[in-house]
Design a protein that fits this description.
- This protein is α+β, with helices and mostly antiparallel strands.
- The protein has a single domain (2-181), classed as 2-Layer Sandwich (Alpha-D-Glucose-1,6-Bisphosphate, Chain A, domain 4), CATH 3.30.530.
- 29% of the residues lie in helices and 37% in strands.
- The chain is built from four helices and nine strands; from the N terminus they run βααββββββαββα.
- It has helices spanning 13-21, 23-28, 125-150, 182-200; strands at 2-9, 33-35, 44-52, 55-68, 73-82, 87-100, 103-115, 160-163, 180-181.
- Strands 1, 2, 3, 4, 5, 6, 7, 8 and 9 form a nine-stranded mixed β-sheet that branches.
- The protein starts with a strand and ends in a 7-residue tail after the last helix.
């Protein structure tokens, strides 16, 4: 499946690119993701935890990230498996930074395959909305970290998605993030969809 995500930060692309090269800090911005140790021969040991109601999964695996400093773009490739559900995920994410005014536009294109018991959750339009919500959380966390470390301004806008990408990156061991609350994101998505529907009917005003 392919997904496309984009988000905007108000920091200049030079600063955002520096943040993207700090893989350890970048992983900490993604809900549910952690690095479980230092990179070995360029391989990043990763863990991603997610909860979907009574279902809890912990995908353990690894990946590699490459950077093109001249183009301010890069690619992450990885795979992981959850022993409890017998599910496996494999994919690649290409990311690119573009200056936009005083800020930076970040585009991420993901191509992934999910097999096993959790594959049922990877189908349908709701996955794109979930990816958008997750990207918005990542963007907010990244923006806050940059504000703290660089003393600059905050995230300008929320993430937006279209059909086709998403992803993760990751260098030394760090405390594990809380598991991603999948149902919580689903609730947010459903509420947003309901509000848009009411807005289309003229019942409520939408921004």
């Amino acid at each position: 499946m392919q997904l496309e995500q984009s988000f905007k930060l108000d920091q200049p692309s030079t600063q955002v690119w520096e943040a993207f090269n700090n893989v350890e800090a970048l992983v900490a911005c993604l809900p549910g993701a952690t690095l479980t140790g230092p990179a070995v021969d360029g391989e990043l040991p990763l863990r991603f935890e997610v909860k979907l109601g009574p279902i809890a999964a912990a995908f353990v695996g690894g990946g590699r990230v490459t950077f093109d400093d001249a183009a301010r773009s890069g690619k992450f490739e990885g795979q992981a498996a959850d022993k409890r559900t017998g599910s496996r995920v494999k994919g690649a994410a290409v990311f690119a930074l573009t200056s936009e005014g005083q800020g930076t536009l970040v585009d991420v294109n993901v191509d992934y395959a999910l097999t096993g018991a959790l594959a049922q959750f990877s189908r349908g339009a709701i996955v794109r909305d979930l990816a958008s919500a997750l990207t918005a959380q990542f963007a907010a966390n990244l923006g806050k970290n940059m504000v703290t470390s660089m003393g600059t301004s905050q995230v300008l806008g929320s993430a937006k998605s279209t059909e086709a990408s998403g992803s993760t990156l990751g260098t030394a061991a760090q405390p594990p993030n809380a598991a991603l609350d999948g149902w919580g994101l689903i609730k947010q998505v459903l509420v947003a969809r309901f509000r848009r529907w009411l807005g289309a009917l003229g019942i409520v005003k939408t921004k």
